[in-house]
Write a structure and sequence with these properties.
The chain contains 16 helices and 33 strands. By secondary structure, the protein is of the alpha/beta class.
């Protein structure tokens, strides 16, 4: 039996493998907690009704702090957990180390001790489209298996409302207009004097979801022990309110107003009525009130004579009182109550903005950071400006606030070992900002980040010196993650899963295998032809039927800019080639080759120059924020970036959908990617694969080998 303890992610504090295997088909169990989750994860293998001596016990006793657990598997499975959270985590670990077999489930005999580093380990997700709810459940299952325990679920105007159906209709109209706008949703953002809030029209796929379906999501989160926090945005990102009721907008003359007026009682009457409908369904312990990207304040006649501090604090306090009266704690994006100098030497946070953009449009935003002293201290701050300076958590601590890092990227944060030890930092939250589908999350590189950040938030040993170690573990976890999400076993990189392989022969070169998720034996066969690419019109010969093919290939370069799905990009420049699969009856099937991630029957590919390195960015290499048209730097106050940047911005996407191998070659480090393709005609014999170049794309694909999956 394969040692599955090596595949556990996050890595437990202590994990010892023993001799032997425990077999579970239908075992008597005594569970003091988390019984519903145990039944969900293990089904009929758990029998709590049996009167026989329990072979599976789960008991509560302090075993090392909140969320801690101990697992002992020998002649029985014994789990001890400090609390219910620890019990949930222990069951997820048991699921991860189990192996299905004809006799039931197999568990390696072992001893595991574990506990989380940070108590809040979150993921920000959009509501899924109705047709994706079952897929969404699988995503939630996978996140829970990586020990995430908090879901921030952005609602927008997508839940069908009984009291305000006009909000739903206005939201649907807005989603259509954003997609149809000449330059897409980002064009709408640039349509006014200020850079408007992100539109987030991907929520629920731009459609509506019923309260009954929302309740299904709530119930599934509770089953998994996930704290579901609805994000009911207020003040900013208020499209869903102001589009239906422009009379409450701070700038009612806009076609797409995004901020409500904080001095208008009607703003709160509407918001509270909408919130009450959502609260009835979710019954949350916490609500996220938004407040990021506040760009419009103090413009209307009701607000003009008030300071930015008054306006922001007044708004937050009204929301706080509403939720506090219902026993609900609030969270919020915290940049508008921050005041610090960024690593580029510039005042940042809720500071005054006076700006004329490149079109001559005047933009003004008043100072707001003093609102921090005018609002309750038990608001949990989401510090997403942590990427702009090294000491943002210290500022929040000095102001009396507890925080988590929002939009967290564990793979990129510098000095985590020092920053995370601030007593007011209780965790982090990875944001996805896309339709929660496997394709979109994968294409945007979030699965790699979710794996990496799960380790950072759970384990207590991450530091800058371990960045590459954590990176390789996250990369190696991608096939396991894909299998959990799709239920399909991906090509695991070993020769055991491959049958016939055809390699393009060429000049012999001194090529040395470095590492990767393609096994060395397979990698050696790929490079036996000298990593010689197939020329257009040439054919790699095969002879046999195949359920799947595996293409071993790479791209010479990559798109200039890192694109994401919310950029609504034209994918044609990312399609460097097509492969023509020839069958013995004369039929030909064309396979689209897509850079980084593929959908609809295509195959993914990555840059052959790619490596997994991270570097500190140059101060002039990135925009300070999206309000400015220019990257302004004060060299007298310049410090090191608080974030590392990946050398290859696309790698995280490519390694999710592909296995890879890195080589030392006479031409430098080269990466080969492998991607599976499911043959739509498995009963027809394949005779070979031909390469067809795509002139529309500036990228050049190189196909080295193709293999049949056994």
């Amino acid at each position: 039996m394969k040692n599955k303890l090596k595949n556990l992610l996050p890595t437990p504090k202590k994990a010892e493998l023993r001799d032997g295997v425990f077999t579970a088909s239908s075992i008597p169990a005594k569970l003091e907690t988390a019984e519903s989750l145990a039944r969900y994860l293990f089904g009929g293998a758990i029998d709590t009704e049996s009167t026989a001596k329990p072979l599976f016990t789960l008991s509560l006793s302090d075993c090392g702090g909140n969320g801690a657990y101990v697992i002992d598997i020998d002649e029985k499975i014994a789990v001890t957990a400090t609390d219910e959270a620890g019990a949930m985590s222990a069951l997820q670990t048991l699921k991860s180390i189990s192996t299905p077999a004809d006799s039931g489930l197999l568990f390696p005999c072992c001893h595991i001790e574990d506990a989380p580093y940070k108590p809040v380990r979150g993921v920000h997700l959009y509501l899924p489209p109705v047709y994706m709810i079952d897929e969404f459940f699988t995503l939630l299952d996978t996140l829970a298996s990586m020990k995430y325990n908090t879901i921030i679920l952005e609602i927008g105007g997508c839940v069908q409302l009984d009291r305000h159906p006009e909000i739903n209709m206005a939201w649907l109209k807005f989603c259509h207009e954003a997609h149809d706008y000449p330059t897409g949703p980002q064009g709408i953002q640039g349509s006014e004097a200020y850079w408007k809030d992100s539109t987030h029209v991907e929520i629920s796929g731009g459609g509506l979801i019923s309260k009954a379906d929302l309740r299904r999501i709530v119930d599934h989160c509770r089953l998994l022990g996930l704290n579901l926090v609805p994000e009911l945005q207020s003040l900013s990102h208020a499209y869903y309110l102001t589009l239906a009721h422009p009379e409450i907008a701070e700038r009612p003359h806009e076609r797409w107003p995004d901020h409500y007026c904080p001095s208008n009682d009607k703003s709160y009457k509407l918001y509270f009525e909408v919130a009450e409908e959502i609260l009835e369904v979710i019954e949350p312990t916490h609500v996220h009130i938004g407040h990021d990207e506040v760009r419009v304040l103090g413009e209307c006649p009701l607000c003009r004579k008030k300071s930015g501090h008054e306006l922001l604090a007044g708004d937050i306090n009204r929301l706080y009182d509403f939720y506090n009266a219902r026993g609900i704690k609030i969270m919020m994006w915290g940049e508008m109550v921050q005041n610090f100098t960024s690593w580029k030497g510039m005042p940042t946070g809720g500071v005054e903005h006076n700006h004329v953009d490149k079109y001559g449009r005047i933009y003004h935003l008043p100072t707001t950071y003093e609102a921090a002293h005018m609002i309750p201290k038990d608001i949990l701050m989401f510090d997403w400006y942590y990427s702009m300076a090294d000491g943002t958590q210290d500022e929040f601590r000095e102001k009396g606030f507890t925080e988590i890092y929002g939009n967290f990227r564990g793979s990129q944060i510098a000095n985590w070992d020092k920053r995370s030890k601030s007593p007011n930092v209780i965790g982090g939250e990875v944001s996805t900002w896309c339709i929660p589908s496997e394709y979109e999350i994968g294409f945007n590189g979030w699965f790699y980040e979710l794996a990496f950040s799960a380790k950072v938030l759970w384990q207590d040993d991450f530091c800058d010196e371990k960045r590459m170690e954590f990176s390789r573990i996250a990369e190696e976890y991608m096939p396991t993650l894909m299998e959990k999400l799709s239920g399909k076993r991906a090509f695991d990189g070993t020769a055991d899963t491959l049958g016939q392989m055809s390699v393009k022969t060429g000049e012999k070169k001194n090529i040395t295998y470095r590492y990767g998720t393609i096994d060395k034996a397979v990698a050696d066969e790929i490079v036996s032809g000298g990593l010689t690419p197939l020329e257009e019109g040439e054919k790699l010969t095969l002879d046999g039927e195949a359920d799947k093919l595996v293409f071993f290939h790479a791209v010479n370069g990559q798109p200039k800019d890192r694109l994401t799905t919310w950029a609504f990009m034209d994918k044609r420049p990312r399609v460097p080639a097509k492969y023509a699969v020839d069958y013995d009856d004369g039929m030909v099937k064309t396979v689209l080759v897509e850079f980084a991630m593929a959908e609809h029957g295509g195959v993914a590919v990555g840059d052959k120059h790619s490596t997994d390195k991270y570097v500190r960015p140059d101060a002039y290499g990135n925009m300070l924020n999206d309000i400015d048209d220019a990257n302004v730097v004060n060299e007298e106050k310049l410090t090191l970036s608080p974030m590392y940047s990946p050398v290859d911005n696309w790698r995280a996407a490519a390694i999710y959908s592909c296995r890879f191998a890195e080589f030392d070659t006479p031409d430098g480090i080269r990466t080969v990617y492998s991607c599976e393709w499911e043959n739509p005609y498995p009963g027809h014999k394949i005779t070979g694969v031909r390469f067809v170049n795509e002139p529309f794309s500036p990228l050049e694909a190189e196909l080295y080998a193709v293999a049949i999956v056994q």
